[in-house]
Specification:
With 254 residues, the chain is an alpha/beta fold. A seven-stranded mixed beta sheet has the order 1-7-6-2-5-3-4, with helices on both faces.
């Protein structure tokens, strides 16, 4: 049954990408940025709803009322593709820090490019760090929130990596709050396996963490402690007590 559900999901997934790519992407550059987000995010709304309907997923989304009024830095754990889709809808317009290879995907990447992401070359980590710090602050000043996955890459449920402080640095430099987000989406949408799993998908938005007068290290410690505590509560797969050491082949992006 899960296989049939997943096949149906991907049929709609790719059809939606084709339709939005053909109808929306040519029009989007003509629109102001706020309206461009609303148009292109119709794809995200469809994918989130289609995943729920076809794959038997029940959403438990908590804490959206805690989002601040102005731009902020959103720091979330990264398990799969689902959160990259949903978090675009959490506080639009939002600028996402991502790997530049995604912008080369036909239709999908072309649409992403129109949303002013911060696209990083993961083969040059020092340059990528400078880029995310400079462009992240600029995006906040332009009125966009910034979404960063501090683990730097997808981390399957039941595993843990050290958090990178670049998001906290951006927030501290700009004097903007950090909003922590925790979810267990990888248990429903496995990152490296195409068959989806029915069940409850939980996402929790935390209280904004103020950064004025604080160091990035202090902010990051609070963010990581909050995210890991929530993951221990909502995850079906037990959380490790300490992060793993990144291997030589893994290049964190941000």
């Amino acid at each position: 049954m899960n296989v049939l559900r997943s096949l149906l999901f991907y049929a709609g997934y790719f059809l939606a990408m084709l339709v939005c790519g053909v109808l929306f992407v040519p029009v989007a550059p003509l629109l102001p940025l706020s309206r461009r987000y609303r148009l292109l995010n119709l794809y995200n709304h469809f994918i989130i709803a289609w995943f729920r309907v076809t794959c038997g997923v029940r959403y438990d989304i908590r804490g959206r009322e805690r989002l601040p009024e102005g731009p902020c830095v959103i720091l979330a754990n990264h398990q799969c593709e689902w959160e990259t889709v949903y978090l675009q809808l959490l506080k639009p317009p939002v600028c996402t820090v991502l790997k530049q290879e995604l912008l080369r995907i036909p239709l999908f990447g072309w649409g992403l490019r129109l949303l002013h992401p911060i696209a990083l070359d993961r083969s040059k980590p020092a340059r990528a760090m400078r880029q995310v710090l400079s462009q992240g602050k600029s995006r906040l000043e332009e009125g966009l929130s910034v979404l960063i996955f501090p683990e730097g890459t997808r981390v399957p449920p039941g595993r843990r990596r050290r958090y990178n402080k670049s998001g906290a640095v951006i927030a501290c430099r700009a004097g903007r709050p950090v909003v922590p987000v925790a979810h267990n989406a990888g248990e429903r949408w496995p990152g490296r396996y195409w068959v989806k799993n029915p069940g409850r998908l939980s996402l929790v938005v935390g209280e904004p963490i103020e950064t004025l007068g604080r160091t990035p290290e202090e902010v990051l410690v609070e963010v990581e402690a909050w995210i890991e505590a929530r993951l221990a509560e909502i995850s079906e797969i037990p959380r490790p007590t300490a992060p793993e050491t990144a291997t030589a082949t893994e290049k964190p992006t941000a």
